[in-house]
Amino acid sequence: MNIQNSIQLFRQAQNIFPGGVNSPVRAFRAVGGQPLFIERGAGPYLYDVDGNRFIDYVLSWGPLISGHAHPKVVEAIQQAAFKGTSYGAPSPLEIELAQSIMEFMPNLEMLRFVNSGTEATMSALRLARAYTKRDKIIKFDGCYHGHADMLLVQAGSGVATLGLPDSPGVPAQTAAATLVANFNDIESVEALFKQHPDQIAAIIVEPVAGNMGVVPPVRGFLEKLRVVTKREGALLIFDEVMTGFRVHPGGAQALYNIKPDLTTLGKVIGGGLPVGAYGGKREIMQLVAPSGPMYQAGTLSGNPLAMSAGIAALSLIRDETVWEQLEARARQLETGIAFAAQKVGVPVRQTRVGTMFTTFFSETEPRDWNSVKIADKVRFGKFFQKMLENGVYLAPSQFEAGFLSTLHDETVIAATIDAAEKAMMAC
Ligand code: HOZ
Questions:
Q1: Which CATH architecture describes the domain 71-315?
Q2: Probe ligand 1: pick from 61, 151, 242, 356, max atoms within 8 Å of CB?
Q3: 187-216: per-residue pLDDT in tens?
């Protein structure tokens, strides 16, 4: 595969950006080789600057449920841009998008728009602390909720990929207020409540873990989190930045029928533009300034481009048949990859919930970070490179999720399975 232009650009980029990138996982350090520079995306495909075409399963790390550059989303952004790119004042678009989100997720009685998932989780935790008047929080080993100080503790995603469980620069006191439990292990949660009585403000959880690769919750785990938090006077925060609209139209909270106190959402509600939101029970949300004393603000929050793109993107997935088709294609991919691995004799564990999936190169059932981290990363790296050579772009880390769009049709999926079989034979 010719990647001469990408090679040249990466050389330049390394002088300008740390590691040559603006977000760590993109540097391909976990899979070898070097990043491809992208020229454009169209439907299920990405095209790099050397003219190579790839079936894309990253989809901007999740949000592009209707594929790249969907005409309706592009048109909405164009129309909005003609009317100005930012007002720093309320616009009717904010109400329209919020109402659309609330139809999908009725637990959000009120919400606040922000600019990213990181802002959403950081603000939701501040709110939980303000509401409960407690300082400590619980997160799960291997879960990632953005790069706010208090959340860079035994985190997933790029932090796990690069083998940096924590980050220098996070004050020890801040890190000490973040308690870490094991995903899918309610006993580890109970133990923390016992050790820190009346001090824990909230549990924040990816209801389907996605940032250590896709790890579904075991039966009863989320239900128990709900019971324990209620009993202990702590809030339950579902971080649905990844799972929102991905595992079910109403997110994981609809799929598993759990009512969290607060929910965080990210780029998916802006059709891939920079946006996020946090929301939940009215009584809690009313603590947010200016209706309450918990301060949080942002000039670009609710900006008209992101709102317009979000309105268009969500309107495209309202139809139930869209979901049925997505589910069918995702199942085709899941079984196809698992079958290819079996045929070739490569041990994998294939996980999937809705349109999120991961192929773990492991014989151990993925259940938590400890069972996931032993996956064969070298083999994954080889698989990743072979998939690229065969025209398939996966997330460049064993510890990330893959995503499908409505434009990943049967033919696209069949080509992916074919590529997977070839790639497995070579790794
Ligand atoms: N940590 C992000 C995915 N979980 C990657 C973001 C990016 O590189 O764009």
A1: 3-Layer(aba) Sandwich (3.40)
A2: 61
A3: 999 999 999 999 999 999 999 999 999 999
